[in-house]
Amino acid sequence: MADKDNNQSSAGRVIPVDIASDMKESYLNYAMSVIVSRALPDVRDGLKPVHRRLLFTLHELGLYHTARFRKSALVVGDVLGHYHPHGDTACYDALVRLAQDFSLRYPLVIGQGNFGSIDGDSPAAMRYTETKMSSLAGELLRDINKETVPFAPNYDGNRQEPLLLPAAIPNLILNGTLGIAVGMATKIAPHNLTEVMSALEALIDNPGLDSEEVLQYVKGPDFPTGGVVYGHRDIAHASSTGRGGVLVRGEADVVETKAGSSQIIIRSLPYQVNKAELITKIADQVREKKLEGIKDIRDESTTLDDLRVVIDLKSGAYPQKILNYLYKHTDLETVFHYNMLALVDGVPKLLSLKAILAEFIKHREVVVEKRTRFDLREAEEREHILLGLKKALDHIDEVIQTIKRSADAAEAGRQLMVKFALSDRQAAAILDMRLQKLAGLERQKIEDELKEKQALIKELKSILADHGKLMEIIKTEFAEIKSKYGDERRTRVVKQGVGEIREEDLIPEKDNVLVLTRGGYIKRTDPVEYRPQKRGGVGVVDLDVKDEDVVDILLSANTHNDILFFTDRGKVYQIKMYDLPEGKRATRGKSIMNFLALADGEKVTSVLAVPKSGDKLSLFMITRAGVAKKVAAGSFSDVRRSGLIAIRLDGKDQLLAARLAPSGSSLVIATKKGQAIRFRESDIRIMGRAARGVRAMHLSGGDEVIAADIVTPEHSAYLIMTANGLGKKTKLSEYKLQKRGGGGIKTVKITTKTGPLIAAKTLTGAETQIIAVSRQGQTIRTVLSDIPMLGRSTQGVRIMRVRAGDALASMICL
Question: Among the options 128, 217, 530, 718, which is catalytic?
C-alpha cells in the first residue's frame, strides 16, 4: 500500500517535455552563452570576458606598469578562483596573447620570460613566466573606482566583478579581435592609435562624417607584423560595410650581392603568418621542383622589428618571377577577411568602422558623465565637511566649551549639532579634528581647500549642464592619449589594388625557339642550345626524330606570346608559348595532340606568335594554291579550345601561312619554282572569318606557294634558302610592286644543284643569326653577315652542307 502511494506521489511530480523543444531551447541558451560570455567582444572596451577578468585581476593585484613583475601562475590562479571558472590552459593562453607584440598591435600585458614567437614556438609554462600590465592597459582601467561601469556578483557571489571596463582607448579597433561563436564569428583588423584618435576627434567635431571621410584619418589596418595592404577600394568597402577582403603582402626586396647574384629579402610578413611555416613551405616547393631558381633560404631575424628572411637565387634566375610565385603559392600574400561583429548593448551587430568609433564615443560620454557626477558628489561631501570645520574654527572657544561640558562624545556631537546647526557628519569631523588645526597655517589650509572644492563643484556642475563642454573634455583626453602613446604606422597602405597573379606572371619572359615536326612533335628550346657555326658546316642534331619524321616549323617567340596554330584545313588554334613543353636541343618534345584538339589527319602548317599590342594590324592567310585572305587581327584574340574556322578552302587547297601586317605594308610571296610576287596589303579588303579569300598569285603547272612574308619600310633584304642548303640575300628594292594575281618575277635560279626553293624570309637588319633545320633533324646556326647579298637570278652560296637523302626543311632568323 505504501509503495502504491509513493508511485502516485512520484507520478504527480513528472512533467512531460517535448524533447525537440527542450533541445532547441537548451542549444539556444548554450549558443547565447558562447556568443555573449566567451567569443564576441564588447564594442565599448573591445574585450572578451576572459581578457576583462585578467586585466581586472592585474588591477586588484596592483600590477600596473610601474609595479614589479609577479608570476603568471598567480594571476591565472586568481582569475580562475575569483572570476573565471574555466580551464587554466585557456586562461593562460589568453594572458599570453595579450603580451605578444606580433599578435597585438598594442600589447596590454608586459611579459617577462618566453611568451612564444612569430615562428609558432609555445610559451613557457605559467610557473616560469612573469607579467604585469602595460601602460596602455592602465587606460582601460582608468576611473574604474569612480562608479563609471556596472559591477555584478562573480560566479559564486562572494565578490563583485566589472561587466565592462571604463576604457579610455578604443581597444576594439586598435588591437582588433578574432572569435568564433555559434553560428557567427568576428574578425577585426588592428589599426594605428594616432590615426584612430584623430578620427575620434574629427567625429566629435563633426558627427556627420561618412565612412569615406573617416578613411581620410584612418588610412587602413595597421598590423603588428607590418606588411603592405593594397587597394583603397577594398579597404573602403570593408570599413563601410563591416565585411570584405583586403589583400596583404609581406615586404620583400630584390637586392644584388657583391658577387653579382640576386637575393630576395623578406622584411615583414602578413598578419598571423607563421614565419617558420612559411620558410618550410618555400623549402618544400623547391624540393618538389615546383619552384626553381632558389639556391638557399635562411632566417636571419633577430626581433620582430628586425625580421629578415634571405632567399639566395641561382645565377640566371628571374627574381621577380620567383617573388610572384611566392606571392601566389605561399602565405607571403594573404587576404584579411573583415567581419566586424561585436556586442552592442549585449546584442551581436555587424558594424562599420565609423559605427565602432561612434559607439566608443557614446561609451566615453557615459563614463565621463558618471565620473563627473562621482567627483561632484565627492567634492560636495568634502565641501560639507570643510564648511563644518570652518564654522567650528570661527567659533572655536564656544565649540571647546560645549565639548568640555558634555558627558561623552555622543552628547558632545548632539550639542554641536543643535547649537551650531551642524550635520552629524560635520559634528563627527569636528570631534575628530586635531588641535594642530587651530594653528594659523592649518586654518588657512582649510579655507584654501574649501575655496578649491567650491570652484571644482562649480566647474563639475557646468560640465554636467553643458554637453559641448563634456565633449570637449573627451576630445582633450583623446589628444592626450594620442600624444602619449601615438606611433608611426607599421603597415604600408598602397591605394592601388593588385590584380590576381596569373600563371604567366610566374613565367620568365625570354625568347624561345618553337620546334614542330611534320610528325606532330612540339617543344620550345632556349636559343643558346644552338652554338654559332661558320656557314657551310654540317650542323648539329636538333632533336631525336623518328626515321620518317622531319622538322617542319621553327619559330622564335617570347614565352608570354599567344601562339596561333593554323592548320591545312583552314582552322586556327591558340595556346600560350609557356604552355608548350620545354626541352633540350636533342629531345623530341611531346605530341601536339596533347595541346591542340586536332582532328584525325589535320596538320599544322603555320604557326604565328601574336604580339601583345596588335592594334592596327591585319592578319593575312595564304594558301598553297596562291589564295590570300585578310582579316582583322582581333578576330583571333580569343580562340576556343576546339579551334575556329580561319578560311574556307576550295578542293584540295591547303592553308600555308598566316602573317600579321601593319597598315601600309606589302606582301611578298614565293613559290617552290623560284617565282615571287610583291603587292600592297591594301589590294585585299578585310573579310569575315568564314570567307574564301581572293587570288594573290597566278601559279604555273606543278608550282605551289612555299613562303609568304610582310614587307615594311624597316625591311631591306629578302633571304631565301633552297632544299640543298644554298641561300642568299637580295635587296627588296629589286622586287617591284605589282598588282595581286600576277605570275611574279624570278627570285632564285632553280637547278638540280639548288633543289626547289624551301624557305624565304624578309629581313629588317635587326636579325643577326639564322637557324636552319634539315628534314632529318640536322641544325645549323650561323651569322647572317656571312651570307652575301646577291641578285635575284643567282643561285646563292652554300649555307648548310646537306647529307645525301636529306633536304632543308625550314629556317628562322634570330
Answer: 128
